[in-house]
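Work Package 3 (structural annotation) set out to generate three-dimensional models for the target panel prioritized at the project kickoff. During this period the team completed the workflow that converts sequence records into discrete structure tokens, so that structures can be stored uniformly alongside our sequence database. As a representative example, we reproduce one entry of 341 residues exactly as it appears in the project archive.
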Amino acid sequence: MSPHLLTRRGFLRGATATGVLLGLAACGDSGSTAGTGDGASGGARPFRYTDGRGTTVDLAARPTRVVAQSSAAAALWDAGFQVTGVYGELGTTDGKLNYQAGNIDLGKIEVVGKTYGEFNLERYAALRPELLVDLSFDDKTLWYVPQGSADKVYALAPSIGMKMPGLDLPAIIENFMALAGQLGADPDAAPVQAARTGFQSAVDEVKAAIAAKPGLRVLAVSRDPAKLYVADPDAHPDLKHLASLGAKFVTPSRPMKPGEYFEEVSWEQAGRYSADVVVYDGREVPTVAETVEKIATWTNLDAVRAGQVYRWQPAAPYSYAASAPIYRDVAGWLNKAKPLG
């Protein structure tokens, strides 16, 4: 993970366009706790939502032109609401869209940016956005909105930062379901309910796999040619949920401060983190793996020597549809892995 990637994932470390905010009017209950859709895509129903930053978006009419960061856009998409525009990780590998973009169809929406730091203000303004949705990993900022142009972005439409800290995956999925409902999606639609059922089935598979090997130790890491980053499972929504199901994670060697998601260590210290299974951050660029495979302290890890290394997908879309296959994969490698002593 290069310094650029550390910036791209700001939570690891703790052309001009002008516009006017849409008129705000007091109405309704907080979107973080209430609101279900009626199946319509728009209309005069009021909209109110208090986000992870404590910011309340209060609109006289439900927004229909919504632009969102890729993980958030995909979560809303799976919940039944199709955004107007998207930005975030939208590159392709072997012809497949980045996993953070989930099931969104780029042919149906406008792309405002394709990676961290890309946010085309003119294109965004041309969409006449009524709402922006992103993730907030610090309860202060929006993850993929470039800080240098944030004021201009915020001047064009109200924004929502979906709360991440302290929540596990199911809680975040439910928050996206509630937001999609308030935007007009039908939470009782057959595809949505089928996805919920599929996710619960996958969770049951994970629970059974954990119960069969209760002492299996899992280490989640992000890798960089110069450093290893050991994940705090309590700080990552998916790992936090897996831990609640009984998974045993190897944790950082020191207490983590609020806002810290990883412990940064040198490769010389990698051997201190003994585990039966290692999962690595799926967001790393391919050249990282090539370099890391030449680092002796990595190749000498018991899990690596045993071939018990698997891909981890943090920041995958926070939806039942996206999470079910990921959890089935987790159950699969838990079932294959062997305790290494």
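Residues 190-212 form the longest helix (23 residues).
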